[in-house]
Task: structure prediction
Amino acid sequence: DIQMTQSPSSLSASVGDRVTITCRAGQSISSYLNWYQQKPGKAPKLLIYAASSLQSGVPSRFSGSGSGTDFTLTISSLQPEDFATYSCQQSYSLPRTFGQGTKVEIK
Amino acid sequence: QVQLQESGPGLVKPSQTLSLTCTVSGGSISSGSYYWSWLRQPPGKGLEWIGYIHYSGSTYYNPSLKSRVTLSVDTSKNQFSLKLNSVTVADTAVYYCARTETLLPFDSWGQGTLVTVSS
Result:
C-alpha cells in the first residue's frame, strides 16, 4: 500500500489568508494525486485531480502542484466557506489510499 | 449528473453481516469505463477505501478487508452492494459509495450512511 502523509494535521487561519497544505506519498505516484474538501456530516467533494487540474465548478482560489512524492494544495485567499477538512488521495495504484486529513479552522 | 444513494440498516450486531446497497441514478452503472466503489470513515478518522466493482462483475478488494468483503452488482436495478461479515465495533463508520475510473479520482459520491455496530 502507498502511504499518504499530510501536514499539518490542523491549522488555524483567518479569512483572506493564504493557506498551504502538503501531502507526501510513500513512493512516487507521478501526478496521480487528488484533493478533496469535506465539511461535517457531508461527503467529500473533489477539488483537484491529477495534482493540478481544477475540478469543474471549483473556485480558482484553489490550486494544486507537485509530482512524484511531494504535493501541495494552496488556497490563495481563504473564504468563510473554506473552513473544512482537506484530504489527499492517490489514484496511482491499488488499494487507493488517503491522507489522514488537514482540518482548517478559524483563527 | 450521476447521483448515488446508499441504503441499508443503520445498526448491526457484532459478528453479524453488514449489508448496504448503492443506487445509481442519472446514468447507467453499465458505462464501460466506470468502477463503483465503497469507502468508509470511522468517526473522527480518515477515509478508507474498501474496494470496487465493474459492471462486468470484476472486483478489487482492499487487502485489509478482503477476507470479509463481498461486492456485487445488479445492472437491471442500476445498483451495487456491499457485504461485510463478522463485524466488530471497529467497523462502525459512515459508509460511502462513489464512482471512479482507472487512475482517476472519486468524482461522484453518495451522501453517506452511518452504520453502528453494537449489541
Summary: The mean pLDDT of chain A is 97.
